[in-house]
Amino acid sequence: MGAVSALGIGAEALWDGLREGHSGIRALRHKDADRLRVKIAAQVPETFDPAATIDERMLPLLDRTSEFALCSAHEAIAQSGLDFKRGTLGARTAVIVGTGVGGETTQDEQSRRLYAENAPRTHPLTIVRLMTNASASQISIAYGLRGPTFAVASACASANHAIIQAAQTIRYGMADVAITGGTEACLTYGALRAWEAMRILSDDTCRPFSANRHGLVLGEGAGIFVLELLEHAQARGAVILAELAGSGMTADATDIVSPSADGAATAMTQALADAGLATTDVDYINAHGTGTPANDVTETHAIHLAFGDQARHLVVSSTKSMHGHALGASGALELVAVIGALRDGVVPPTANLDVPDPACDLDYVANVARQLPVRAALSNSFAFGGLNAVLALKRAP
Amino acid sequence: MNETTQPQVFEMIAKSAKVDVATIKPESTLKDLGIASLDAIELIFDIEEHFNINFPEQQGANFDTDTAQSLVTAVQQALDAKAANGAEDK
User: pLDDT value at position B40?
Assistant: First the structure.
């Protein structure tokens, strides 16, 4: 696995930060910050240097979204030990990457040139940088991966939907390996203004499940994973980080923004069934947990619906309180947290949970990580549009 | 209180709720009027545009349960603050 996030460069930096309860939420770094109402964000540190891992000839072709994805892919592939030049592996490897909006930085910059500066032309690489599939395509090109390759877009559930699609591609025998996850870099002036207008952003910090929560804090980053057929991984003696055991996907079909407990609960129940897990097997749920008034109550209700009495015997946490809401990359950053919990027996906390909310009545691992053997876990992602995608993970076999 | 503020705000609420402006009472909540979620956010945007003001960010949380009169008061406060500061809309 590989990651770029507000908690640093690399999956290890992300996991170490999460288990220590460190927050990546800071004052917004933006050249237009003084004009914006939003004052905080969970941004990738300024020390991020794409040239440290990406061939300099490729850099002019990349939006920030693709830089994050490629750096994360590089880390994940190096860790996997796979050599895609050997035999038919390149042809048998898929690349399926989720992103909410794709090359937003490029879009915003070029729109500014055209409309604000009356420039007579856009940069010639505008299209190849901004297209939603750019991240998946650039990973494919960088490593010679010639299996099914495309982007998945479902707003805040994009990463989970992409990971599920990658797993299905392997299940159906269309690939032995898939490079998958999510990437997002959309903290542009235009996008920040659009989020401000929805009046859903917090002005202090992200406080999931806390009675004093004010809304979400935008983030950015990427998480990329090497998904591999179990037999394929075992045959080459790979170090297996975790087993993606099942998944569930539903649509609420109710409202474009207001979440539904039924849709989310059904996706969790599907994921358990697909993974062959009983509710009593699950020790941890990494919540969608955005910190908005609506999500956290609805998600709590959904967990009660899906788990019944067992809801009180498992723990739930929202790591968005630390890495922010990285939209189409969220599920991927959260999968790093779930894999860390399964491997280390440590559940990362929900930071900033200061005031218990009677409407949020589960064990949210408030503020401090907890030592707890985790046998199996769910990772929830719910998106605007009423789209739900849930992963079920087990410890490595 | 500017006497034209209330009729203007009530007119905008009525338009959003698709009801006759005479049915809007000061104590009516947006939720009572069937203005919820995105409709409420859109109404707030329309009011901000109309008066060239900004509501504070945190007021967003409870628009559904706000009354028509509380919106009028919020508009008037924003107009007063703008007049006092000579603040540019931003």
Answer: 87
In angstroms, what CA-CA distances link A158 with A243, A295, A321, B4? Answer: 20, 17, 19, 47
B54–chain A Cβ distance below 8 A for any pair: yes
Cβ distance A199 to B44 less than 8 Å, yes or no, reads yes
Q: How far is A322 from chain B (nearest CA, A)?
A: 21
Is A206 among the residues known to form the active site? no
Is the pTM above the cut of 0.90? yes
* Residue A30 falls in the annotated catalytic set: no
pLDDT of residue B36: 79
Is the CB of A215 less than 8 angstroms away from the CB of B61?
A: yes
- Residue B84: what pLDDT? 87
| Residues in A touching B60 (Cβ below 8 Å) | 199-200, 215
Specify the pLDDT at position A71. Answer: 98
Residues of B in contact with A201 (CB under 8 A): 57
CATH number for region B5-80: 1.10.1200.10
- A344 near A370, Cβ under 8 Å? no
Question: d(Cα A62, Cα A385) in Å, to the nearest integer?
Answer: 28
Q: What is the ipTM metric for this complex?
A: 0.78
Q: What share of chain B is helix, strand, coil (3-state, %, to 5)?
A: 65, 0, 35
CB-neighbour burial class of residue B59 (10 A; exposed 0-12, middle 13-18, buried 19+): middle
Name residue B43's amino acid: L
Q: If pLDDT is split at 50, 70 and 90, which confidence band does B89 have?
A: very low
For residue B1, the model assigns a pLDDT of 58
Q: Write down the pLDDT at residue B60.
A: 47
Residue numbers of chain A with a pLDDT score lower than 50: none
| A214 given a catalytic annotation | no
3-state secondary structure of A257: coil
Q: Do A37 and B41 touch (CB under 8 A)?
A: no
Q: How far is A144 from chain B (nearest CA, A)?
A: 45
